[in-house]
């Protein structure tokens, strides 16, 4: 009974906040106001609170621009958690645009939808990413290309770092800052979440969204830790595979440190 009351209350608050903020965001998008970058963070902070997702941050977001964040990806919650701590936009596969709920939210956040199979569109998409990064927007890339079970970092696809390479010529400094980020789900109701229970937070993609969302709301208390690592400067002469390997190693170390509750050298 208490769980269903929590779900009902969360739904009412989320609906009320959305009714106020979504029209304002649509207006900001129409006129390309900078407010469109800030409103999603306000919305996601409130949603995290309603869903019982408690976010803790370690490390520091880079001040330098242009900036691309590269994060591990285990759940739809990653988007809310990262958006709750920084004004960001995401690179997403084109299929996401058609997803119920998430597709609409992605458009409201002005995500960049990429068609990886059609090379003729790649240049246009990369130019959009480059232009927005040069204008000071923070772009988030999930270089695994899919979601995991939350216990490990999957293989990082170096080809996805092409967006950073394409943005280099548009950078006033000739450099794109690429910063590793790890999102780890570490506790449920204050108790350490082991590897066998972490799939409660993970959403590998073969689980239906609504039941997973209801499970999260019923739970009502999940701790998420966002860790910002040491950035890499991506220049015209940088090797994409070397940069991706370095970023992958740093994400993996950050993730393992948070999951184990201690620093890993």
Descriptive notes:
44% of the residues lie in helices and 19% in strands. It is of the alpha/beta class. The protein has one domain. Strands 1, 2, 3, 4, 5, 6, 7, 8 and 9 form a nine-stranded mixed β-sheet that branches. The longest helix is centred in the N-terminal third of the chain and has 29 residues, at 2-30. The radius of gyration is 18 Å and the shape is globular. The model has no long low-confidence stretch (mean pLDDT 87).
| Secondary-structure class | alpha/beta
How many strand segments?
9
Which term fits the overall shape?
Answer: globular
Instruction: Give the helix tally.
Output: 8
Largest sheet: 9 strands, mixed
Number of structural units classed as domains: 1
Mean pLDDT rating: 87
Low-confidence stretches: none
Report how far the terminal alpha carbons are from each other. 46 Å
What share of residues are in beta strands?
15-25%
What is the N-to-C succession of helices and strands? Answer: HHEEHEHEHEHEEHEEH
Write down the Rg. 18 Å
Helical proportion, percent range: 40-55%
């Amino acid at each position: 009974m208490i769980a269903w009351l929590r779900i009902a209350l969360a739904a009412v608050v989320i609906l009320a906040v959305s009714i106020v903020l979504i029209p304002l965001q649509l207006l900001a998008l129409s006129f390309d106001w900078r407010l469109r970058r800030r409103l999603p963070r306000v919305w996601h902070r409130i949603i995290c609170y309603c869903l019982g997702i408690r976010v803790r941050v370690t490390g520091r977001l880079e001040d330098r621009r242009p900036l691309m964040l590269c994060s591990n990806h285990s759940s739809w919650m990653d988007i809310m958690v990262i958006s709750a701590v920084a004004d960001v936009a995401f690179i997403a596969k084109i299929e996401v645009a058609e997803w119920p709920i998430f597709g609409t939210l992605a458009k409201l956040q002005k995500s960049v939808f990429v068609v990886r199979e059609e090379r003729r569109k790649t240049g246009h998409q990369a130019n959009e990413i480059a232009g927005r990064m040069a204008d000071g927007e923070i772009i988030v890339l999930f270089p695994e290309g899919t979601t995991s079970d939350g216990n490990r970092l999957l293989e990082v696809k170096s080809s996805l770092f092409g967006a950073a390479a394409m943005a280099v010529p548009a950078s006033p400094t000739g450099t794109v800052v690429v910063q590793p980020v790890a999102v780890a789900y570490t506790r449920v109701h204050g108790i350490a979440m082991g590897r066998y229970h972490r799939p409660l937070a993970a959403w590998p993609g073969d689980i239906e969204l609504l039941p997973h969302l209801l499970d999260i709301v019923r739970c009502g208390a999940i701790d998420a830790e966002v860790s910002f690592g040491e950035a890499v400067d991506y220049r015209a002469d940088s090797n994409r595979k070397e940069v991706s390997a370095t970023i992958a190693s740093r994400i993996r170390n950050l993730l393992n440190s948070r999951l184990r509750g201690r620093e890993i050298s």
